[in-house]
Specification:
With 209 residues, the protein is mainly beta. The chain has one domain. The chain has one helix and twelve strands, in the order E-E-E-E-E-E-H-E-E-E-E-E-E. The strands form three sheets. Strands 1, 2, 3, 6, 9, 10, 11 and 12 form an eight-stranded antiparallel sheet that branches.
Length: 209
């Protein structure tokens, strides 16, 4: 059995991967610190007093996972942040620009629910722009639950950047943005390439600041 460690940072994209050449996926910028994935496997077990504290082998259920991804971004370009201010909007007036956090209470339409892709920097050359990265993390439908704390202070020390950690939560949906069926085993999220599902035609853009 091969030893396959995954080292280094990841590039993060969010959007619609079904558009040609990755045009629908936005690169969310540079990060500083640990990017973490918790699959939150939903395994439930049952117990009986007569058999003690050991779960019963015939009462084990999978309630479905609840994957969460945390990303510490240092890039605060508005065109990137609007991808995780889910009900926000960029308001412009000629050269003047502002980003609103939200427009108030509103149901977010399924058409506005994006895909999240995290591609190891070391595997960005796998396939076109990393689409075939063996250790990529994909959440086919995702929502940003928190945008993190934006910290401002007098720079001091060797590392003066203050990341804000965005938390993404996986959502369940049976099709991608082009109404193609997503394999049932991949809908909650997966590690690998979407090309493992022959029904999908996804793509990524070139990494660009």
């Amino acid at each position: 059995m091969a030893f396959e460690p995954v080292l280094g940072p990841f590039h993060v994209f969010k959007g619609d991967p079904t558009t040609a050449s990755g045009a629908g996926m936005t690169y969310l910028g540079k990060t500083r610190g640990d990017i973490t994935l918790n699959p939150n496997l939903g395994i439930m077990t049952g117990f009986a007093d007569q058999t003690g504290r050991t779960p019963l082998a015939d009462v084990v259920y999978d309630a479905g996972p609840k994957p969460m991804v945390q990303v510490p971004f240092v890039d605060e370009e508005k065109a990137k942040m609007i991808k995780y201010f889910e009900n926000g909007e960029i308001v412009t007036n000629t050269t003047k620009e502002a980003i609103g956090f939200s427009s108030g209470i509103k149901k977010i339409a399924i058409a506005d629910i994006d895909t999240l892709a995290l591609i190891p920097v070391s595997q960005i050359a796998s396939g076109t722009n990393g689409i075939d990265a063996a250790n990529a993390i994909w959440l086919p439908r995702v929502i940003a639950k928190t945008a993190g704390d934006f910290t401002f202070n007098l720079p001091d020390g060797d590392d003066i950047l203050n990341p804000h950690t965005v938390e993404f939560e996986a959502l369940y949906y049976e099709t991608d943005q082009d109404d193609n069926n997503v394999n049932a085993s991949l809908r909650y999220g997966f590690i690998g390439t979407p090309n493992a599902d022959t029904g999908l035609t996804w793509s990524l853009p070139v990494v660009a600041d």
